Request: fold
Amino acid sequence: MTTDNRQALMDGFRDGIPIGLGYFVVSFTLGIVAKYVGLNPIQGFVISLLNNASAGEYAAFTVIGSDAPYFEIALLTLIANARYVLMSTVLSQKFSPDTPFYHRIFVGFDVTDEIFGISVARGGRWLNPFYNYGAMLTALPGWSIGTALGIMAWNFFPASAISALSVALYGMFLAVIIPPARKDKIIGGAVAVSFLMSYLAETFLPEISAGNRTIALTILIAGAAAILYPVKENDK
Amino acid sequence: MTHDIWIYIAVASAVTLAIKILPLTLIRGEIKNVKIRSFLHYVPYVTLAVMTFPAIIHATQSPISGGLALVTGIFAAWKGASLFQVAVLCCTVVFVAELFI
Reply:
């Protein structure tokens, strides 16, 4: 390993420590949901290791919980993780032509909001994949072990603690959507419409599963926003 | 339960990994289509919003504590609290509120 690569690995590891700790806590509560829909600790570990995606996994658990057809979990995972298409596309532009192809696969394996954030924030024309590998050293164990422990520890927690921990995931979702909603009126409007329509759909069309509701409303609302308010090239 | 959890996990993981890895390995140029770019731009916010509400008020023992967590979480995130801080704050609000409900 070259000195540059070793340095990048160390930097990524250092920047990844708060990410790994945060993942551990949040995935622990995700494990509570996983337990609720019937996953054992090994299944929780595997799905978290391979997905490392809070919204995507939560969406997957709602499908498992309602015993829905397999295509529904594929479709909902696709919708809930669609943002990674953008991030992966952005990262594809930051690979130096000299970087071996297989690094694209390994970096792609663990694209998350936070790792994407720090690897873009690090700056420089080209991305050093070893920086991402350093961050993955904390993120992947934090997330997958946290999920497995959440499933195992479920029985030892009183109802009041489960109730409190169960909102951690929603808190994390709010932390992702509210700051851009504040800055951008269109996103803010889309979030408000989403809250309202989700509530109306659940109240008046309760026979539609949570997963299908998410798919339908996402296509409807994000599609309408894209047609009415297309994002210009330099708005990103 | 008529479906196998391992197959659910395999399908979800295959889709997620394809989403994360395929653009990195296949797309070399930029996506030019404005409609597709815009749709992808709005998708995460809409999906997360739909999944958060009203689910958050059903997640807790009382809808009141869940509602308080929602309002507090929005306020804290609006004020710029970090992901971790918002999550912990929401949990604390529910725990404290349910001591009185």
